[in-house]
Design goal:
three-stranded antiparallel beta sheet; globular; DUF7129 domain-containing protein; mainly beta; DUF7129
Length: 45
C-alpha cells in the first residue's frame, strides 16, 4: 500500500465501500461501485 495522499487543506472524498478517492464532489457517487462518497476532510468521531 502506498502513501495516503490525503491532506486536510484540500477537500477529498472517499467511498467507504471500496476505498475509491477523488478530489471533486462530482455527483457524490463512486464511479467504481456506486456507493455514496464522503468528504474525508471533515473531522469525524
Amino acid at each position: 500500500m502506498g502513501i495516503d495522499p490525503y491532506t486536510p487543506t484540500e477537500p477529498s472524498y472517499e467511498c467507504p465501500g471500496c476505498g475509491y478517492r477523488d478530489d471533486t464532489d462530482s455527483g457524490l457517487l463512486c464511479p467504481d461501485c456506486g456507493g455514496q462518497l464522503r468528504n474525508i476532510a471533515v473531522a469525524r468521531e
